[in-house]
């Protein structure tokens, strides 16, 4: 078929090469394939960034408008919401009026019920098991939705959970009308979802105009968008998993913007006057300690000493400037910061003093074993970075040993815990994580109920004080009070040095200087309505 | 019993004389007159010794790098061939990398040579149903392009040296079976084999003495030719991430990890490929030279 | 003759079946649970089981093979675990792209190989012969993925003459035969053509040298025929074998383009295979290998039949 098409094109030879309209931004993604377009993207947060947020909206969304402040959750398709004061598992969401899908149909309460059903209601015709796997873990407590009136819905959770509005940024609203039209032409729900993915319909600022699997996704500005419309006319998304191929594509003008240029190519990119952008990302690249008796990291003095001993400026230099030195899981100024009294910095003298207090030093060396991976999503440059720290800590009398395992293994071991055979006696593990959502940033590590195999409290941290603070945060429904509770939790975590915080990733991008208006927020996501090209 | 044994011995001796000194002396003489073969053999010998004694020759530790001196260019003091993306000495990495590359280039061919010759000679000598069973199975594997088969098997099994060697061995066995079977069939009907058979020698002895003596040469030459292909394929698998795993040095994998550095140190980044190329072309030319010297067709 | 052709064609059927079996077994030898390619490791257990049932991964092996074969015969290669799209929909586009690349590389290999081989065979022992033979050996010995990298460094990064990756400014679906698109094909084609060039050069050189020594050519020359007329005879006699070689090379290139496609991000079967391997998307892996192997089986058959038809010496009935 393709051959025939090719030959046809050859015969006609008039197919005018696509003249790029003004305002078309071509983006090289790191994914090997275009993330799923049916509304619940795969490929991690890169999927949400490129085939979630631009095409769809969710009830709540991240504020992506500014680079200089923390990105927080703001209203989107829901204008406001409140929890039932009598029953904290019942929420009321008031929906925005006048929102239209790309296919022209209206967004309303039925849409929300339908979209909750697609992943949580097994009996619903639109239920799609594939989307469950990609969604359920990101909103663990949501159970079902009920319509109250045309623009009001009730959401019900399995337990009181004040984090629900944050979780809801992951549930994108697909058009039931469009789906029903496709369902009439396809034998099964699964086939219908595949057809929907090929021609999606959401309420987002861009609509899909062309989808070539594995090669390109073309989006055009949706002029019926309910909020500020996009500046660029079109976006073209290209999967280019190989970092050097991405760089080559940008340098030769095949694309205008690439995700995650390799640090080695920065010099070349700058010399060709490409813009390199970066900003703090809610991401932590830590050593997560084992708190079990017998682990040297069960001693808070040693954990603090390590936090003080690491030369993060040197590490930053190693990465070509592409990291931010962390002072906690979130940065100062963030609503959950909480002003901890333990100040994370590089102070080798203080680190040596703490170590001596714990009974270690150059004379009596401390050996710590860390399980690390050679690569992996969000892992930055694990081998060189760990190796740097190893050399950096040696003069203080700390010998770091590495157990290098495959990324999937390291990730899998994360739910086995440091007492399991899979840890192979490691005192710390080096799994990086996204820290946008308090559950994923703190709760799953510091709640004793989250110990393996339930979740990622790999080190079996267990302090009733922390359990109480977590319970308080999850059951405080006033957003300001909830954030204050989370801030107390974060401050306590930093004071106890519950991680060795080593780096924040900065989500580097390189783009041609012709791109204007671009804002890189402190987020994994980007507001693609803002940039345009000259 | 005794007569059969005597007959075997007699034939053994005769063949040894017939094929012995004169033949190999001739081969050696012809090789000596072929400068290309000599040069290639010398290069390979030097390479072999260099990677064999890598721990003695290498100026640095193959795993220990330094971030401060990463990606230095050719001709850097103390690092004549520069350093890699983790600041490890390229001379050292290439020396140690050669060990795995050679290992993965030669071991599958040796394994395939042993297994393929056994099966091929059996098929060729026994004929009939045995031949049918072996050769038709071979046809199935022959129906896959070799790169595809190697990628398919190691892709399904997952990355790793053992899996890659397994995949490559499976790729080469059918090819050697075919050559062995053809050559054996040719030898089977020769006069002296008939003579041996009529004088009462056992089938096993005939195969061991007469058939193997005559077929091993051509199969061996064919196999040396495969080393070059195998080395490229093995490095190719590592290049795809299906062979060795970091931080193990191997030329194909080094080429893969250095790819991001082609903007910084392009000529350092392509060095491992040059090593693969030189080794492969030398094995190829050596195999050609041997074939001519041994007067083997095919 | 007809008998031979018929027998040869019939023999392709059991081979094709056996190839299918090998492809099915590929997935069975793969370690690990394919379910992990569909759901994230922290998905709840009942969701995993639900998905497992939906994908038929809970049935016993022989049943899975039977079902699979039945579907394959009907042209259904299953659905990708990663994307949910039918394997065939992605594969058909990819095959077109790989075919385009492989055909171009075969043409280059054939033309360059025949020229070099013909010259070398005609002027045996000359400098020209040695040069051609040297190129041929280098062609079959060079790790072509490395050659591709070197060419990217020279022509894309340093000189900025040719694009480094991709299949045209608008991807393969916007392909047109003008320079703007064609330039994307140049480096991958050259890279992929080095092996067939080497092999064709060697083969043609051998054939031509042999023919030139044959009595009838010597006789023709004695009769005072011009070089051109002799050349025509040589071509007539060398063509069937050279065509057979390049025909098979096309099959090898189709199956072996994974490395070149990876270097140049060429959206063909190789790149598809590569991403299927790393996402452990077994249906895609299986389908791609099956189709490529079947293509090779068919090509082998066609080459044999054509060769038999062209070359009167093959008449084993």
What does this structure look like?
The complex is a heterotrimer of chains A (534), B (298) and C (317). By secondary structure, chain A is an alpha+beta fold. Chain A has helices at 2-12, 44-52, 109-120, 129-135, 164-167, 176-183, 189-198, 243-251, 266-271, 300-309, 312-318, 348-357, 382-393, 407-413, 438-446, 464-474, 479-495; strands spanning 24-29, 60-62, 73-75, 78-83, 90-95, 142-149, 152-157, 206-212, 216-221, 234-239, 257-259, 275-277, 283-289, 366-373, 398-405, 428-429, 433-434, 500-503, 509-511, 515-516, 532-533. Chain A is 30% helix and 19% strand. In chain A, the strands form 5 sheets. In chain A, strands 8-9-10-1-11-19-12 form a 7-stranded mixed sheet. In chain A, strands 13, 14, 15, 16, 17 and 18 form a 6-stranded mixed sheet that branches. Chain A is globular, with a radius of gyration of 24 Å. Chain B is mostly helical. Chain B has one domain (34-294): MetI-like (MetI-like fold, Orthogonal Bundle), CATH 1.10.3720. Chain B is built from 13 helices and no strands. In chain B, helix 3 packs across helix 13, helix 5 runs antiparallel to helix 10 (203-239) and helix 11 runs antiparallel to helix 13 (271-294). The longest helix of chain B has 37 residues, at 90-126. Chain B is elongated and about 75 Å long. Chain C has 317 residues and is an all-alpha fold. Chain C has 12 helices and no strands. In chain C, helix 6 (144-158) crosses helix 7 (179-213) and helix 9 (227-256) packs antiparallel against helix 12. The model of chain C has no long low-confidence stretch (mean pLDDT 81). At the A-C interface, helix 1, helix 4, helix 7 and helix 8 of A face helix 2, helix 4, helix 6 and helix 11 of C.
Can you lay out the helices and strands and say which pair or pack?
The complex is a heterotrimer of chains A (534), B (298) and C (317).
Chain A: H1 2-12, E1 24-29, H2 44-52, E2 60-62, E3 73-75, E4 78-83, E5 90-95, H3 109-120, H4 129-135, E6 142-149, E7 152-157, H5 164-167, H6 176-183, H7 189-198, E8 206-212, E9 216-221, E10 234-239, H8 243-251, E11 257-259, H9 266-271, E12 275-277, E13 283-289, H10 300-309, H11 312-318, H12 348-357, E14 366-373, H13 382-393, E15 398-405, H14 407-413, E16 428-429, E17 433-434, H15 438-446, H16 464-474, H17 479-495, E18 500-503, E19 509-511, E20 515-516, E21 532-533
Chain B: H1 2-19, H2 21-32, H3 35-52, H4 54-57, H5 90-126, H6 128-142, H7 146-157, H8 161-188, H9 191-198, H10 203-239, H11 251-257, H12 266-269, H13 271-294
Helix pairs in contact in B: 1-2, 1-10, 2-13, 3-5, 3-13, 5-6, 5-8, 5-10, 6-8, 7-8, 8-10, 9-10, 10-11, 10-13, 11-13
Chain C: H1 2-29, H2 45-54, H3 61-73, H4 87-122, H5 127-141, H6 144-158, H7 179-213, H8 215-222, H9 227-256, H10 258-264, H11 269-278, H12 282-310
Helix pairs in contact in C: 1-3, 1-12, 4-5, 4-7, 4-9, 4-11, 5-7, 6-7, 6-10, 7-9, 9-12, 10-11, 11-12
């Amino acid at each position: 078929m393709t051959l025939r098409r090719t030959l046809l094109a050859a015969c006609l030879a008039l197919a005018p090469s696509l003249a790029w309209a003004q305002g078309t931004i071509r983006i090289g993604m790191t994914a090997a394939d275009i993330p799923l377009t049916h509304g619940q993207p795969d490929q991690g947060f890169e999927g949400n960034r490129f085939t979630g947020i631009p095409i769809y909206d969710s009830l709540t969304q991240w504020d992506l408008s500014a680079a200089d402040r923390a990105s927080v959750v703001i209203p989107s398709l829901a204008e406001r919401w409140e929890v039932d004061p009598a029953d904290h598992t019942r929420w009321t969401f008031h929906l925005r009026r006048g929102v239209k899908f790309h296919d022209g149909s209206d967004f309303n309460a039925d849409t929300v019920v339908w979209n909750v059903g697609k992943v949580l209601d097994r009996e619903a015709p639109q239920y799609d098991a594939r989307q469950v796997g990609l969604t359920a873990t990101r909103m663990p407590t949501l159970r079902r939705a009920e319509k109250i009136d045309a623009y009001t819905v009730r959401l019900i959770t399995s337990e009181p959970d004040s984090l629900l509005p944050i979780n809801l940024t992951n549930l994108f609203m697909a058009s039931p009308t469009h789906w029903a039209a496709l369902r009439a032409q396809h034998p099964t729900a699964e086939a219908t979802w595949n057809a929907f993915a090929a021609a999606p319909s959401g309420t987002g600022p861009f609509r899909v105009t062309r989808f070539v699997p594995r090669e390109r996704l073309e989006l055009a500005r949706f002029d019926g968008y309910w909020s500020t419309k996009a500046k660029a006319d079109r976006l073209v998304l290209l999967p280019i998993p190989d970092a050097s191929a991405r760089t080559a594509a940008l340098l030769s003008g095949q694309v205008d913007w690439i995700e995650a240029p390799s640090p080695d190519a920065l010099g070349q990119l700058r010399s060709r006057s490409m813009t390199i952008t970066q900003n703090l990302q809610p991401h932590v690249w830590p050593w997560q300690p084992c708190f079990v008796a017998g682990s040297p990291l069960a001693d808070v003095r040693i954990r603090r000493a390590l936090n003080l001993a690491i030369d993060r400026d040197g590490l930053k230099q190693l990465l070509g400037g592409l990291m931010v030195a962390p002072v906690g899981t979130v940065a100062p100024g963030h609503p959950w910061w909480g002003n901890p009294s333990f100040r994370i910095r590089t102070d080798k003298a203080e680190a040596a003093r703490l170590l001596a207090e714990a009974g270690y030093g150059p004379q009596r060396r401390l050996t710590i074993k860390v399980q690390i991976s050679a690569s992996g999503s969000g892992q930055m440059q694990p081998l060189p970075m760990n190796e740097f720290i190893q050399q950096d800590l040696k003069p203080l009398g700390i010998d770091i040993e590495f157990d290098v395992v495959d990324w999937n293994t390291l990730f899998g071991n994360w739910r086995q815990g440091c007492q399991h055979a899979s840890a192979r006696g490691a005192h710390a593990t080096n799994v990086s994580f996204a820290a946008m959502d308090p559950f994923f940033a703190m709760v799953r590590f510091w709640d004793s109920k989250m110990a393996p195999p339930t979740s990622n409290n790999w080190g079996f941290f267990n302090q009733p004080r922390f359990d109480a603070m977590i319970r308080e945060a999850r059951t405080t429904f006033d957003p300001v009070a909830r954030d204050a509770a989370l801030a107390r939790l974060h401050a306590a975590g930093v004071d106890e040095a519950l991680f060795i915080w080593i780096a924040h990733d900065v989500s580097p991008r390189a783009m041609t200087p012709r791109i204007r208006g671009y804002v890189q927020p402190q987020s994994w996501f980007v507001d693609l309505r803002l940039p345009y090209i000259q | 019993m005794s007569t059969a044994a005597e007959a075997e011995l007699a034939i053994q001796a005769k063949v040894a004389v017939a094929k012995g000194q004169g033949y190999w002396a001739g081969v050696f003489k012809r090789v000596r007159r072929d400068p290309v073969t000599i040069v290639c053999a010398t290069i390979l010998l030097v390479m072999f010794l260099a990677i064999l004694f890598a721990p003695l020759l290498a100026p640095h530790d193959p795993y220990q790098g330094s971030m401060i001196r990463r990606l230095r260019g050719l001709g850097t003091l103390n690092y004549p061939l520069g350093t890699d993306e983790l600041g490890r000495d390229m001379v050292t990495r290439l020396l140690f990398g050669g060990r795995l590359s050679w290992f993965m280039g030669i071991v599958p061919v040796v394994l395939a040579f042993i297994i393929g010759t056994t099966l091929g000679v059996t098929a060729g000598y026994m004929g009939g149903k045995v031949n049918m069973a072996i050769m038709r199975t071979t046809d199935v594997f022959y129906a896959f392009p070799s790169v595809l088969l190697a990628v398919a098997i190691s892709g399904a099994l997952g990355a790793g040296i053992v899996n890659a060697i397994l995949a490559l061995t499976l790729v080469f066995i059918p090819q050697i079976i075919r050559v062995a079977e053809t050559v054996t069939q040719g030898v089977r009907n020769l006069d002296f084999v008939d003579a041996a058979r009529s004088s009462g020698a056992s089938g096993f002895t005939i195969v061991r003495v007469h058939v193997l003596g005559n077929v091993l040469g051509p199969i061996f030459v064919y196999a040396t030719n495969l080393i070059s292909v195998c080395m490229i394929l093995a490095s190719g698998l590592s290049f795809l991430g299906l062979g060795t795993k970091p931080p193990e040095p191997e030329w194909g994998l080094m080429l893969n990890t250095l790819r991001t550095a082609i903007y910084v140190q392009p000529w350092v980044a392509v060095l491992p490929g040059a090593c693969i190329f030189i080794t492969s072309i030398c094995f190829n030319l050596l195999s050609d030279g041997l074939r001519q010297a041994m007067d083997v067709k095919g | 003759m007809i008998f031979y052709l018929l027998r040869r064609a019939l023999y392709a059927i059991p081979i094709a079946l056996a190839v299918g079996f090998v492809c099915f077994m590929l997935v069975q030898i793969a370690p690990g649970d394919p379910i992990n390619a569909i759901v994230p490791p922290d998905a709840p257990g009942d969701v995993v089981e639900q998905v497992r049932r939906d994908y038929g991964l809970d049935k016993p092996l022989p049943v899975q093979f039977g079902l699979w074969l039945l579907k394959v015969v009907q042209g259904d290669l299953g659905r990708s675990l990663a994307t949910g799209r039918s394997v065939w929909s992605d594969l058909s586009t990819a095959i077109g792209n790989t075919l385009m690349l492989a055909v171009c590389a075969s043409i280059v290999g054939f033309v360059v190989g025949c020229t070099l081989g013909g010259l070398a065979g005609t002027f045996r022992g000359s400098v020209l012969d040695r040069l051609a033979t040297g190129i041929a050996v280098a062609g079959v010995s060079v790790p072509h993925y490395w050659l591709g990298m070197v060419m990217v460094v020279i022509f894309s990064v340093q000189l900025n003459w040719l694009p480094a990756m991709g299949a045209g400014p608008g991807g393969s679906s916007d392909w047109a035969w003008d320079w703007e698109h064609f330039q994307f094909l140049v480096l991958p084609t050259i890279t992929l053509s080095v092996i067939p060039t080497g092999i064709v050069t060697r083969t043609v050189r051998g054939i031509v040298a042999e023919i030139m020594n044959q009595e009838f050519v010597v006789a023709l020359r004695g009769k005072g025929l011009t070089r051109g007329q002799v050349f025509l005879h040589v071509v007539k006699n060398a063509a069937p074998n050279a065509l057979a070689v390049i025909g098979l090379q096309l099959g090898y290139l189709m199956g072996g383009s994974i490395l070149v496609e990876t270097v140049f991000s060429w959206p063909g079967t190789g790149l598809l295979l590569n991403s299927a391997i790393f996402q452990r998307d077994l249906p895609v892996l299986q389908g791609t290998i099956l189709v490529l192997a079947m293509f090779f089986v068919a090509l082998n058959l066609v080459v044999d039949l054509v060769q038999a038809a062209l070359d009167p010496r093959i008449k084993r009935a």
